[in-house]
Design a protein that fits this description.
Layout lengths: L25 H22 L6 H21 L7 H27 L6
Helix pairs in contact: 1-2
Length: about 110
């Protein structure tokens, strides 16, 4: 039989229908913020050094690393469901496809022929 509470009604079943939330320590947030600050300082420092054609590559690598940290920790994707992770991956795939199409159009143009 079901258990009775003090008011005579039946106790609801203790089923978890919601996803349980992952509690992230403030130390993790502070560590990520410090890494982001170091990444920002590294970007500024790298902008003053002439590395030829590698300047944008280095800047984009730092920016992608910082964006990955923000998405994983501050947007809680690291602790989310597989569906959320799949959605983020699909968004990145669509972004890269659009960039690829844009670059293919840019590269295939006949520069200087008109």
């Amino acid at each position: 039989m079901s258990e009775q509470n003090q008011h005579g009604g039946a106790e609801p079943q203790s089923q978890h229908t919601e996803h349980e939330h992952h509690i992230v320590s403030p130390v993790v947030y502070l560590t990520i913020v410090l890494i982001l600050f170091v990444g920002t300082a590294l970007t500024v420092w790298a902008s003053y050094i002439d590395m030829g054609p590698w300047n944008p590559v280095i800047a984009l690598a730092i920016a992608c690393t910082k964006a990955t940290l923000v998405v994983l920790f501050f947007m809680h994707v690291k602790y989310s469901t597989k569906l959320t992770k799949l959605t983020v991956i699909c968004g990145i795939f669509v972004f890269l496809a659009l960039i690829g199409m844009t670059l293919s159009d840019y590269i295939s143009r006949a520069w200087g022929r008109w």
